[in-house]
Amino acid sequence: MLFSIVVFLLLTGAFVYLRKIGARDKDLPPGPPTLPIIGNLHLLPKESSHFKFTEWARQYGGIYSLKVGPGTVIVVTDPTIVKELLEKRSATTSDRPAMYIVDQITGGFDIAFARYGDEWRTLRKTAHAILTPQAATRHLAIQRAEATQLLHDILTSPQDFYTHVRRYTISVIMSVLYGQRVPHYGTPETIAFFEMMHLWTEVLAPGAAPPLDLLPIFKLVPERWAKWRQTVRKIQGLMRPLFFGLLDAAEERIRSGVQNECYVEEILEKQADFGLDRKMIAYFAGTLIEGATETTASYLHSFILCMIAYPEAQRKAQEEIDRVVGQDRLPNLDDRLPYVQALILETHRFRPVSPMFVPHATTASERYNDYVIPSGSAIFANAWGMLHDPALFEDPEDFRPERYLLTENGTKPGVDASDMRGLFAFGVGRRSCPGIHLAQNSIHINVMNLIWAFDFKPVLDSHGNNIQPDTWAYSKGISFAPLPFDCLISPRTSHKARIIRQEFSESATIFERFEHAGRSTGVDGQ
């Protein structure tokens, strides 16, 4: 009898305990109804999570919570709350959630995903040595030269514009980091890199893999039943030889006395001062390539897509740039082009490359108004939801650069949007993108060049009618990039075409410093 009572009490206690797992505590922000044990796991989207997270924001408010097993996810879709939690309280909200997949691939040395602590501070300090505003100006020469090649490549084979843009973005950061440019898209290392990035962004998208860190039992699922394990193995097979091959080449140049003063050479010579070992250097530099390449390419592809879809915006930008710059030279960063600047900002708003950002995590409990955010909670800043909020932006699904001429932050007149300033293009708080200055220069240089040089038009059907581009045909991963699309690109005048050829020819002296015969990156075919 006593044994039966004990068993009954144990089972009752276990039942009560299990019912609490997945339940939303009364002090948490509101959110969708939960189920025992799994919480909201069954509701999480497997792709393009920003759409569902925005739908919930319209229902539950600017801050709401999701339960994933015993873990808590906070989603913020209000710029004032984002500023308060992720900037003003950044001392306790700058961690990253545990990411088993990332650790399996990079060993925790990816600066974007590294946990908040000494190793992250070391990586961040090292990044700032190259990515400060002052340091970024030293790289303008190669950025301009590579942008000139982009113009020349599009002039020569406009149908390949999509890969020309990718070549530009990877060549710039490879030149800056490794002193080794990429003159052609079809090199083995470039193909391997973009294949790796496709898999990388796909597996990291919220919902693409089980919540391995919140429900560790999923880590026990064999590979044949776990697609995420198969993807991780493919990424490892591409990433390691690429990253370490680039490092090998830099070390060989140092041994041979043919350095070209690139950043990784400086790190290798001062690695004791930086506090980095060889593995950290390889993954640190490699993940900088990832961030700089994918995001800038995604932005420029979105810009071209918008020029096709919104010809009136293209016409206004061309009129302004012709009036200010003229026909006889390429634009430069000193040119005052308010409409073009508004167009750049509207492209960031209309199709942000990181609609959800990488999540933050709390290292201590925080209270916001009547809500308690527990220590260890993941915090998602829903950039998409804020940038497409009809309470902030007039007709947010329309592409309207003029909104940024009407108000500083593009919001409706009379709306207090001071917390929107500079918030969403490059992250927020201590985890904002360290490469913001390099990226902004690339974006501005290329947007101005492309508007000055080319007309962008839709392709035609068999009857000669325009085929309107699909501005919703985007990738499903953690970054938001247009899927490959077709368009007609032609030089605006033959005179401008001659200037492009001349500028490209004159860039050869800049390229020489970043070209090395017989280099080896450890990728098959090299």
TrEMBL record:
<dbReference type="GO" id="GO:0005506">
    <property type="term" value="F:iron ion binding"/>
</dbReference>
<dbReference type="GO" id="GO:0020037">
    <property type="term" value="F:heme binding"/>
</dbReference>
<dbReference type="InterPro" id="IPR002401">
    <property type="entry name" value="Cyt_P450_E_grp-I"/>
</dbReference>
<dbReference type="InterPro" id="IPR050364">
    <property type="entry name" value="Cytochrome_P450_fung"/>
</dbReference>
<dbReference type="GO" id="GO:0016020">
    <property type="term" value="C:membrane"/>
</dbReference>
<comment type="pathway">
    <text>Secondary metabolite biosynthesis.</text>
</comment>
<keyword id="KW-1133">Transmembrane helix</keyword>
<dbReference type="InterPro" id="IPR001128">
    <property type="entry name" value="Cyt_P450"/>
</dbReference>
<keyword id="KW-0479">Metal-binding</keyword>
<keyword id="KW-0812">Transmembrane</keyword>
<dbReference type="GO" id="GO:0004497">
    <property type="term" value="F:monooxygenase activity"/>
</dbReference>
<dbReference type="GO" id="GO:0016705">
    <property type="term" value="F:oxidoreductase activity, acting on paired donors, with incorporation or reduction of molecular oxygen"/>
</dbReference>
<keyword id="KW-0349">Heme</keyword>
<keyword id="KW-0560">Oxidoreductase</keyword>
<keyword id="KW-0732">Signal</keyword>
<protein>
    <submittedName>
        <fullName>Cytochrome P450</fullName>
    </submittedName>
</protein>
<comment type="similarity">
    <text>Belongs to the cytochrome P450 family.</text>
</comment>
<dbReference type="InterPro" id="IPR017972">
    <property type="entry name" value="Cyt_P450_CS"/>
</dbReference>
<feature type="binding site" description="axial binding residue">
    <location>
        <position position="433"/>
    </location>
    <ligand>
        <name>heme</name>
    </ligand>
</feature>
<dbReference type="InterPro" id="IPR036396">
    <property type="entry name" value="Cyt_P450_sf"/>
</dbReference>
<dbReference type="Pfam" id="PF00067">
    <property type="entry name" value="p450"/>
</dbReference>
<keyword id="KW-0472">Membrane</keyword>
<feature type="signal peptide">
    <location>
        <begin position="1"/>
        <end position="23"/>
    </location>
</feature>
<keyword id="KW-0325">Glycoprotein</keyword>
<keyword id="KW-0408">Iron</keyword>
<keyword id="KW-0503">Monooxygenase</keyword>
